[in-house]
Specification:
Helix content is 69%, strand content 0%. The chain is an all-alpha fold. It is elongated and about 65 Å long.
Length: 124
């Protein structure tokens, strides 16, 4: 099922006309019709307007399951690497803070130097 079909389905479930969606979103009725019939693919900003107008979470316009999709953060927390705990986590946190405080040109220079060092090491 595509996004247009999902929008039409939620609009019918809510008992709303395209005119009512037009009032709630500020989008033209002809545009709403083009989206629902699959002639136009809406941007994420437009999908957010539709979701607000239909009183549904944005993910429901894109996801067909019953339950919300699993969070990527929950999946990321399962990863075990050197920066996940202990000393590695403290070092990584310090690095994040230092990078956040740097200016964009300084960050670019640091990344350039790091890439150059890696290239040198891989040649030997």
């Amino acid at each position: 099922m595509d996004v247009g079909d999902r929008l039409k389905q939620f609009r019918h479930l809510g008992g709303l006309s395209q005119g009512k969606i037009e009032e709630r979103t500020g989008l033209l009725r002809c545009y709403i019709s083009r989206v629902e019939n699959g002639h136009t693919v809406p941007s994420v900003d437009t999908l957010e307007k539709f979701a607000r107008a239909l009183d549904v979470p944005l993910y429901q316009l894109l996801y067909e399951g019953e339950k919300p999709p699993k969070s990527l953060r929950a999946e990321a927390q399962k990863i075990e690497d050197w920066a996940s705990r202990g000393k590695g986590r403290r070092i990584f946190s310090k690095l994040q803070n230092a990078l956040r405080k740097m200016s964009a040109p300084d960050r670019g220079l640091l990344l350039y130097l790091a890439a150059k060092m890696v290239r040198k090491k891989s040649r030997t």
